[in-house]
Amino acid sequence: MTGMSRDRYVDFLRAWAIVLVVLGHWLITALVREPDGRITAPELLATVPWTQWLTLAFQIMPLFFLAGGHAAGGSWSRARAAGGTPAGWLGRRALRLLLPVGVYSGAVLLAVGVCAAVGVDRDTLALVGWAMAMQFWFLPVYLLLSALTPALYAAHLRWGPRVPLALGTAALAADTLVVTAHAPFVGLLDYVLVWCVAYQLGFCWRDGLLSGRRALPLTMAAGGGLAFAGLVALGPFPVSLILVTGQHPSNTDPPSAAMLAWVVAQTGLALLAAPPLRRLLDRERVWRVVRPVGAASMTLYLWHMLPVLAVAAAFYLTGLAPEPTLGSAAWWGLRVPWLLVLGAVLAGVVTALKPLERGLGALYGRTVPDAGLRRAWPLWLGLALDVVALGRFAVQGFAPGGRFPVLPALGLVAGTALVVLPRWWPAADRQERPQVTRAPDRV
């Protein structure tokens, strides 16, 4: 791969990760129509415990952070070589994420405000608000890692694989305190440390420090897998790689030592699969299928629970949907048409949003290509507000207690506005930077 071209396999990993996240969320979503007409969503992983094993197939976010680190390392290297500043690079990268997130959040918050005003049942509104924000945990973590990328990449250039090793050691120490001393605030560090290991491994992968020797990926895959199995079988950790209510400790809230082992195992498997999959992706017919999915990955990730609400209203509120016992053979048999219908609805949503995506792309294209450190403070303040607001949505949903979330909504609006602010600076104040011809960055 040249520095001017995209790595198809990295794009495939991100697309594959998003598709599995969507399918996983749809698969475990269970809806029940109560005698009073309300729709409830019993937790499949808690009600049918054996389904927690399914999360081993669908918890694929380590690959997303791995691919994200690979892409960010290349993007920052090119920007730095062209004379760009950390603030300028981060501003453009953050906008790539925040513009679609802002549109999605604005649409959901508008709907929440209208529903709250007309007196929709608070429990129902809280459930819907949680469902529409369940995927938001990823956003503040990714923004933080993006903000740290220049420093993380500098550390990578100096110490290489020793950086993820040190981060992993710190994550294990923090998780030990979480499990033994019940220190939840210490666990917040693991949201950054564990996912940063995958992100940093992406740097190492891009720079050839993990490839070329088949024994290393094989060791990572086998060692990470065995460590995960040992921590589940002998340690205190559950098998589920998705949060299960009442389960302590959890592997995701915060990310645990078992999740760290899973990161290492998935990285090894991704490296082992790279050569044959790269050959497959070199076929244009295959790439023509993968590329649109990758291009629409953010739309798929943000909007994939909207079809669930549409199908719930059309089939469950009306009583048209059959409702066999949760977890029964008949219930699993109905998962096939359930997934097909949701897929068709989501395809319609993605198609309808294409004009909006083009508009966001045009807006992004008009942003200032770079900004001097003198003007960086709006960016850092804006990102701080966005991280806090998105974190609140991730934890509490868009309608905590069935009410409109005033403070998080204002924080997201103010934070995004501060990140976008540089495009309104007078043209004379803009700091011109050398331009390089290259493929556009993706989050």
UniProtKB/TrEMBL annotation:
A Pfam family hit: Acyl_transf_3
Signal peptide (from-to): none
InterPro entries in alphabetical order: Acyl_transf_3_dom
GO molecular function: acyltransferase activity, transferring groups other than amino-acyl groups
Domain Acyltransferase: 8-350
Superkingdom, natural source: Bacteria
Entry keywords, A to Z: Membrane, Transmembrane, Transmembrane helix
Annotated transmembrane regions: 12-32, 52-76, 97-120, 132-153, 165-185, 191-209, 221-244, 256-277, 298-318, 338-356, 377-395, 407-425
Protein name: Acyltransferase 3 domain-containing protein
